[in-house]
Amino acid sequence: MRMTRVRLCMAEIRLRGPEAELENPTLVEGLPGVGLVGKIATDHLIEHLDMRYYASVHCAGLPRIGIYRGGERGVKPPVRLYVSEARDLFALRSDAPISAAAVEDIADCLTNWIVEQDVTPIYLSGLPADLDDEESRDLYGIATGDGEERLEEADIAVPPEDGVITGPTGALINSAARDDIDSLGLVVECNPQFPDPRAASVLLEEGIEPLAELEVDVEELVTSAEEIRAKREQLAQQMQAIAQEESSQAQPLRMYQ
């Protein structure tokens, strides 16, 4: 397998195969955060669309661990990019929590790659709410640069109150706002105590599908919620061990006033 290294800001994004040729690519970001909503949605997207392992991401502060799957011998780094040329789509996947030490580096190196590749990112975050499994989850959209028009076209609601997004996803949105880069942010209500597949299905069906012009079957996320929750429980516990301000999540702005 050919491997190409792209050096960015004291970090590397290493291609693990042929370079993708996309016209107007979108990136779906799935770094672990509250409720694991972004990770569950992105993992489902990668598997459902059979996306190709495209590149590994190496930034200061990321855990130096190897990831392997049951029934497979191959080992991969914890943070990776996947691609679907047919759908003009990238997806960012992480199988480990992102610590505070890595936030600035990963935001800078990924933002530089996003600009170089002319990619429009969709950033995903959970908004902690007191919900049971059967209650509906509300979805809100935010944007930087000229991203608001796409949210309007997709009929995604405006947030009803002031808020702030923390952690790695917050750092990525901050970088986009600082440099006036077009980006989209989806904020979904979720259960903050456990992995929330139902909230992930809302992200996919009501947000990512219309924004990226995709069709994704989310029935499995709802019908297999307990199984998915059990599989993600260990990562959720690792996330809870990280200080609250380090974890990606949306919060009312009044918490910072």
Automatic annotation (TrEMBL):
Residues 211-248 form a coiled coil. It holds the Pfam family PAC2. The keyword Coiled coil applies. InterPro entries: Proteasome_assmbl_chaperone_2, PSMG2_sf. Keywords: Coiled coil. The keyword Cell membrane does not apply. PANTHER family: 3-ISOPROPYLMALATE DEHYDRATASE, 3-ISOPROPYLMALATE DEHYDRATASE-RELATED. This is 3-isopropylmalate dehydratase. It comes from Natrinema limicola JCM 13563. The lineage of its organism: Archaea, Methanobacteriati, Methanobacteriota, Stenosarchaea group, Halobacteria.
